[in-house]
C-alpha cells in the first residue's frame, strides 16, 4: 500500500481521536461515529503498513479508542456493582416521584463516567500524536 494512503489513515484517525476527546456526553451519536472512524482508520493504517513500519502504538491507540465506548460503561458498572444498576432502574421506573438525592447521585455517576471516557480518549490521542511524530509522518 502506498505511504500516502497510510498517512491519510493516520491523519484521519488522529483528528477523529482529538474530536472524540472533546465530544460531550450530549453528542453520543457523534462520539460513537468518531470512535468508529478513529478505530477503523488507525487499525487500517496498522494492517496496511509494511512489516517494518507496523508500530504497536497504532494497535494500542485503536484498541483504546474502541474502549472509550462500551468498555468504559462496562468497567464502571463492574466497579459500582449490581446494586447501582438496580438503583438506576428503580429511578427510571418511579417516573415523576423521583427523589432529588437520587437524581444528584445519578448525575454525579454520569459525570464520573464521562470524565473517565475523556481521560482514556485523551491518552489515546496523545499516544497517537507522539507516535506519528516519531514516525516523521
UniProtKB/TrEMBL annotation:
Its main location: membrane. The lineage of its organism: Eukaryota, Fungi, Dikarya, Ascomycota, Pezizomycotina. InterPro entries: ATG33. This is Uncharacterized protein. It is found in: Membrane. One of its GO terms (biological process) is autophagy of mitochondrion. PANTHER family: AUTOPHAGY-RELATED PROTEIN 33-RELATED (PTHR37278). It comes from Massariosphaeria phaeospora. Keywords: Membrane, Transmembrane, Transmembrane helix. It is a multi-pass membrane protein. Belongs to the ATG33 family. GO terms for cellular component: mitochondrial outer membrane. The chain crosses the membrane at residues 12-37, 57-76.
Amino acid at each position: 500500500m502506498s505511504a500516502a494512503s497510510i498517512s491519510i489513515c493516520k491523519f484521519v484517525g488522529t483528528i477523529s481521536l482529538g474530536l472524540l476527546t472533546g465530544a460531550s456526553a450530549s453528542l453520543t451519536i457523534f462520539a460513537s461515529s468518531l470512535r468508529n472512524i478513529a478505530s477503523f482508520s488507525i487499525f487500517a493504517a496498522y494492517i496496511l503498513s509494511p512489516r517494518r513500519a507496523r508500530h504497536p502504538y497504532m494497535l494500542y491507540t485503536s484498541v483504546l479508542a474502541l474502549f472509550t465506548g462500551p468498555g468504559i460503561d462496562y468497567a464502571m458498572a463492574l466497579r459500582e456493582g449490581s446494586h447501582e444498576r438496580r438503583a438506576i432502574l428503580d429511578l427510571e421506573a418511579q417516573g415523576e416521584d423521583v427523589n432529588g438525592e437520587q437524581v444528584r447521585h445519578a448525575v454525579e455517576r454520569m459525570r464520573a463516567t464521562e470524565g473517565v471516557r475523556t481521560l482514556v480518549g485523551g491518552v489515546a490521542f496523545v499516544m497517537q500524536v507522539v507516535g506519528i511524530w516519531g514516525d516523521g509522518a
